[in-house]
Automatic annotation (TrEMBL):
Ribonucleoprotein is among the record's keywords: no
Protein's name in the database: D-alanyl-D-alanine carboxypeptidase/D-alanyl-D-alanine-endopeptidase
Signal sequence segment: none
Pfam family, one: Peptidase_S13
InterPro entries assigned to the protein according to its UniProt record, in alphabetical order: Beta-lactam/transpept-like, Peptidase_S13
GO molecular function: serine-type D-Ala-D-Ala carboxypeptidase activity
Lineage top rank: taxon: Bacteria
Family the entry assigns: Belongs to the peptidase S13 family.
Keywords assigned by UniProt, alphabetized: Carboxypeptidase, Hydrolase, Protease
Keyword Ligase set for record: no
EC number of this enzyme: 3.4.16.4
Organism of origin: Nonomuraea corallina
Length: 469
């Protein structure tokens, strides 16, 4: 099969599955979740817009005649010999798990230490993403709101767990399109002026997420080094002091966001009296204004492509809340396996955060490859954003940084592999999808957590061997 044809097949059959997903907003029971996940209740005095279905994927090259599963499986002895030789590279260290499965049937094509729990690093985001899509639904949106306070002149800014919320310094052009704090301030000011209110007291409610702001198994320098911000339900620009720059991260993202909101209100002609302080929004408070994120499927795609730690942590907490657990790291550890168990993918997965920064996480190669195969199944259209969000080898995201798939033994497969990377000290992982020469869609996971040296070229070689099978 020609290289171009294989790329078309991988793009069409695996990433979009030639399906259209149209889902509604998912009902939830938790009151705090109702304030964070979108619901179509307009602010007082406004008319609700007509419901418009969200189309999350559409027909692409629908006339293609090839089907997943066409062609024979790769010859096992040949593939086994090549992968075994590559796995013997000393750069991988002495603890490696490797699995390759046929995505259509789940049949195992290759395995080495398949059930060993290995520190997954950022390939944890595959697990988080699948759980978010399965629990929250692909078309759910995260809402940041302003509600009436205890008096006519009091308002409360309510964090909805959207770390991509853009602050006043953010560039307006972004992907995915971000909900905007300036837009929220403009809508709030307009609502207040309609009521004849030109001066308010402002509080902020950051209680949707609970527990420690940094995760178990995180190294102390992660925040200082700009890898992640303290996890809060209210934040702008992912807790960055300067949008676009990872360092420095602000110490208190919620207070920082509320201060920015107060400044924006003043520019819109609404005075803010006194200090801006944290406070819980009154139960059942009338909503004055809101802004909403893009749907969860787009958030998942961004989280995977960019390996966005802040967004992954927020998605994991929303899963915890939806599953009846606290919006904390402890809640995530209970809820994510619970969701994966419901879809038949919970075995071999133990996580303590959503991003993979935790060195306590353990995922087996069998569990990872199996979950990816499940995510591209025609029977699981709601999970397909896991595939479409993975970086393309040599072209996008963490596989398009100019270092990956550049070796003589892997550059020929650039563009033919989609995979999520994972890197921590002494940890290197790669898990994703490709097609064999005969058109079989293959899911793979290569994971090592006792890596003595730079091991990414070896992982690229392993994925390239699968792509050449």
């Amino acid at each position: 099969m020609a290289r171009h044809e294989r790329w078309v097949m991988l793009t069409t059959l695996v990433l979009l599955q030639v399906v259209t997903i149209v889902t509604g907003v998912y009902a939830v029971d938790n009151d705090l979740t109702l304030s964070a996940l979108t619901r179509r209740t307009p602010p007082a005095g406004q008319t609700a817009p007509p419901e418009v279905p969200v189309v999350t994927a559409g027909p692409v090259l629908a006339g293609l005649t090839a089907r997943p599963g066409d062609g024979p499986l790769p010859t096992k002895p040949t593939l086994t010999r090549r992968l075994t030789d590559a796995l013997g590279d000393r750069a991988l260290g002495d603890q490696v798990g490797a699995v390759v499965v046929d995505a259509s049937t789940g049949q195992r094509v290759f395995a080495a230490n398949p059930d060993t729990g290995i520190v997954p690093a950022s390939t944890t985001k595959v697990v988080t993403s699948a759980a978010a899509l399965a629990s929250l639904g692909p078309d759910t949106r995260l809402a940041t709101r302003v509600v009436q306070g205890a008096s006519a002149g009091a308002i409360v800014l309510v964090g909805g767990g959207d770390p991509l919320l853009a602050g006043p310094k953010a560039k307006r052009a972004s992907f995915p399109a971000q909900a905007s704090m300036p837009t929220l301030a403009a809508r709030t000011a307009a609502a207040l002026k309609r009521r004849g209110v030109k001066r308010v007291t402002l509080a902020y409610d950051d209680t949707l997420f609970t527990g420690p702001a940094t995760g178990p198994g995180w190294k102390p320098g992660y925040v200082a080094d700009g890898h992640v911000a303290p996890v809060h339900a209210l934040a702008i620009d992912e807790g960055r002091q300067t949008p676009g720059l990872n360092r420095p991260r602000v110490a208190d993202p919620a207070d920082h966001a509320a201060a920015a909101f107060a400044g924006l209100l003043k520019k819109k002609g609404i005075g803010v009296a006194g200090a801006v302080k944290p406070a819980r929004a009154p139960a059942g408070a009338a909503e004055l204004a809101r802004v909403e994120s893009v749907p969860v499927y787009a958030l998942v795609e961004h989280s995977l492509t960019a390996s966005d730690n802040d967004l992954a942590e927020a998605l994991a907490r929303h899963v915890a809340i939806k599953e009846g657990q606290p919006g904390s790291f402890a809640g995530v550890a209970k809820a994510v396996p619970q969701v994966l168990g419901r879809i038949g993918a919970g075995q071999g997965i133990r996580v303590y955060d959503g991003s993979g920064l935790s060195t306590r996480n353990r995922i087996s190669a069998a569990a990872m490859a199996g979950l990816i195969a499940l995510a591209v199944s025609p029977d699981r259209p709601g999970l397909h954003a896991v595939a479409s969000g993975m970086p393309v080898a040599g072209f996008s995201g963490t596989l398009g940084n100019g270092r990956r798939f550049t070796g003589a033994d892997s550059k020929g497969q650039a563009g033919l592999v989609r995979a999520k990377t994972g890197t921590l000290n002494n940890v290197s992982t790669l898990a994703g999808l490709t097609t064999s020469r005969d058109g079989r869609v293959l899911a793979f996971a290569f994971m090592a957590d006792r890596v003595p040296v730079y091991a990414e070229p070896v992982l690229d070689r392993l994925a390239a061997i699968v792509a050449r099978a």
